[in-house]
Design goal:
Strand content: under 5%
Number of domains: 1
Number of strands: 2
Largest sheet: 2 strands, antiparallel
Order of helices and strands: HHEEHH
Number of helices: 4
Length: 127
Amino acid sequence: MTKNAKTFNIRETAETLVPDRLGRTSYLIALIIIAVMIAIIAFLYNRLPRSIPLYYTLPWGESRITPRIMIYLLPAIAMGFFVVNLVLGLIESKLSPLLPRVLAVATAVLGGMCLMSLLFIIQSITL
C-alpha cells in the first residue's frame, strides 16, 4: 500500500460534483422522488390493468391508452433529466454560478411533477 493513496469519501465526491449546497439538496430530493416512483410502481404493478391511460394530452379515447409497462416511462424521464442537468451543471459551473442552481432546482421540480402524474394515473384507475 502506498501512503498517498486516496480513499473514497462520499461527502468529498458529492461536494466536488455539485459544490453548491442548494444544488446537492435539490439533486438529493430528485433522487428520492425517483426512488419513491419506482417503489410505488413496483408495489402496484400487478394490480394495474393491462392497459393504462398515460398520454393525457392526446384526444379522449384509445389514443391515451398504453401497456402498463410504459408506466416506467415517468421515472425514466425524471432520471434522464437528472443526468442531463447534472452534466450541464458541471460544464456550465465554470461560466455562471447561477445556472447549476437553476438546473438543480428544475430537476427536483420536474421529479415532483412526474410523481404527481404517476399518482394521478394510479388514482384514475380503479384498483
